[in-house]
UniProtKB/TrEMBL annotation:
Gene Ontology CC: basolateral plasma membrane
Gene: Slc16a5
Keywords recorded for this protein, A-Z: Membrane, Transmembrane, Transmembrane helix
Major place of residence: membrane
Protein name: MOT6 protein
Topology in membrane: Multi-pass membrane protein
Length: 489
């Protein structure tokens, strides 16, 4: 066996076993510290409005900027991962998020809070979260669906613990000291990053081991994209305009968006969905307090959502990993989005605590499906050697809607003085996004089947012709005949 052929088997010794599970544990904690954190911001709404004399729209910009930057920093995170590896990006993110929250405890205006807790902390959480998600694709192959689902349980842990901790610290020492403590907690992302030691794997496109400190497959992707997908040894240096195009193509995957219809439909659908997805997380606690629910009980609602997520997300991951759902995970995802949109009508019926608990149970089940499948579906529609750059474009587009959705809805609440606008708006965007993705993927699948059916006779003819050639007596063909390939374009 040649050394080149032995490389893939050496790679499998690291994947799906051993240290890979330690990395998975680190990603679980990262998702709890980062994605779970914005869920507790609604608890501070009343205190922030009182201290800064702000309305719902002005206050909602704070979590909106945080969540938007958390997603929009994807291309920059992709650059950091490619240049320095996942470990560096995660640890830098932990440092930024911790410093941002410490600085926010000294803010004297909402505009300062937008910069410290919104931009700096959001960017740090982006680096830690997205670099952690990217690291899983290097450590897991066979159990990738399960690993993604298990990692997403970190969000559930965050949703469960952050609100309870926030309410306790807020009652004991106020929001400023609470933010100071949060800064120290978020520094633990650096510890999670330290666990992600550089690995030497053999990728499908590059069989020799990666250099220490590099992530596997990075050279192959960079070489291919830097040359525009052409020959790896260009004779002419590209101009400035061509170089800019290659950079955009490399880190934002515009070429994938234009050529891959599945990725295009999925990105547009999720971007539209995000206009309404974050609204219940931000406004549920203020809505409950406004309706007469005690503050501690209102904070408990978010924890109920997170607690149920802990058990449902792994089950969703196992379910989506079944062979029956291979190629059909997008429909399971659309069903979860549709259920999430329909569940918002429960809050419109009544604001009693018992009814809100029922709402939390229902939306938690739907959110479990969305959280467990979002990145798995993205991996299904995009080739893995382009996943990092495709994730960057995917997150930066959805960040635009995440940024604008809550403030615009807060403006409607300020005008109408009715929190029902939040749930009507959320339901509209979620339901319409689910229907759009379902019908679009059905049409795309039908088109693919028709194309395969139309090309089937050509394929059968090619196979029959090749079999006749291969079964000729050896004496009748002194030299190997030229092989004719019929390709499907």
């Amino acid at each position: 066996m040649s050394p080149r052929g032995a490389a893939p088997r050496e790679a499998t010794k690291v994947q799906d076993r051993g240290w890979a599970w330690m990395v998975l544990l680190a990603v679980v904690l990262l998702q709890g510290l980062t994605l779970g954190f914005p869920s507790c911001i609604g608890i501070f709404f009343t205190d922030l409005q009182h201290d800064f004399h702000a309305n719902n729209s002005e206050t909602s910009w704070f979590p909106s900027i945080m969540v938007a930057v958390l997603h929009a920093g994807g291309p920059l995170c992709s650059l950091l991962v490619k240049r320095f590896g996942c470990r560096f990006a995660v640890m830098l993110g932990g440092l930024l998020s911790g410093v941002g929250m410490v600085a926010s405890s000294f803010c004297t205006s909402l505009s300062e809070l937008y910069i410290t807790a919104g931009f700096i902390t959001g960017l740090g959480m982006c680096f830690s979260f997205q670099a952690g998600v990217t690291s899983l694709r290097y450590y897991f192959v066979r159990w990738q669906a399960l690993a993604n689902a298990m990692a997403s349980t970190g969000v559930s842990l965050g949703l469960t613990l952050w609100p309870l901790l926030s309410q306790y610290l807020l009652d004991e020492m106020g929001w400023r000291n609470t933010f100071l403590i949060f800064g120290g907690i978020l520094l633990n992302c650096c510890v999670c990053g330290a666990i992600m030691r550089p690995v030497q794997l053999a990728s499908k496109s590059l069989l020799h081991p990666a250099r220490p400190g590099e992530e596997p497959g990075r050279e192959a992707e960079e070489t291919q994209l830097a040359n525009g997908g052409s020959s790896p040894h260009p004779k002419v240096q590209p101009g400035r305009r061509t170089a800019c195009f290659h950079v955009l193509k490399k880190y934002l995957a515009f070429d994938v968006f234009c050529q891959n219809k599945g990725y295009q439909i999925y990105t547009i659908g999720v971007t539209w969905m995000m206009l309404g997805f974050a609204l219940p997380h931000i406004y549920l606690v203020p809505y409950a307090i406004h309706s007469g629910v005690e503050e501690r009980m209102a904070a408990l609602l978010i924890s109920v959502i997170g607690f149920i997520n802990i058990f449902i997300r792994p089950l969703t991951g196992l379910l989506s990993g079944l062979s029956f759902f291979t190629g059909r995970r997008i429909y399971l995802y659309c069903l979860a989005v549709l259920l999430c949109g329909l569940s918002n009508f429960i809050c419109i019926i009544s604001a009693k605590f018992s009814v809100l608990i029922l709402y939390c149970v229902t939306i938690s089940i739907a959110m479990s499906g969305i959280g467990a499948l979002t990145f798995q579906v993205l991996m299904d529609v995009v080739e893995m050697d382009r996943f990092s750059s495709a994730l960057g474009l995917f997150t930066i587009l959805e960040s635009i809607t995440l940024l604008t959705g809550p403030p615009l809805t807060g403006f409607l609440v300020d005008i109408t003085r009715n929190f029902h606008c939040v749930f009507y708006t959320s339901s509209f965007f979620l339901i319409s996004a689910a229907l759009f993705m379902t019908f679009s993927f059905c049409a795309l699948e039908r088109k693919g089947k028709l194309k395969e059916a139309s090309n089937a006779p050509l394929d059968n003819f090619s196979k029959h012709q090749r079999n006749e050639i291969l079964t000729e007596p050896l004496s009748e063909r002194q030299s190997p005949p030229a092989e004719v390939r019929i390709t499907n374009i």
